[in-house]
Amino acid sequence: MAYGGLAVAPVSSQDGFSEDAEHVGVGIVFQPVEDGTLYVKRLKEGQPAQRSGLIQLGDCLCEINGIDVFRQPAQQVKRL
Fold it and tell me: DSSP labels for 16-76?
């Protein structure tokens, strides 16, 4: 699923989530897990990602603007 160049994939498990989440500019709080995957932990109310209705809690980040970011470090993903 894509929104404004951000591609996420639905997943069935949210195991491993903690309070150490990463924020990004479209109103998504990502939760990194041990293997480096970034999952959607929270959508900020009224921000583009939440308003779109396309991104759901538990989705994992796969791509931003055509760039594969699956299991890339959160600090690297933030720069995109």
Answer: T--S--EEETTTEEEEE-TTS-EEEEEE-TTSHHHHHS---TT-EEEEETTEE-TT--HHH
Task: Give the span between the Cα atoms of 23 and 37, in whole angstroms.
Answer: 14
Q: What is the mean pLDDT of residues 41-57?
A: 91
3-state SS, residue 2: strand
Tokens 């055509």, residue? Answer: 66
Rounded to the nearest 5 degrees, what angle is found at the Cα of 69, between the Cα atoms of 65 and 74?
A: 115
pTM as predicted: 0.66
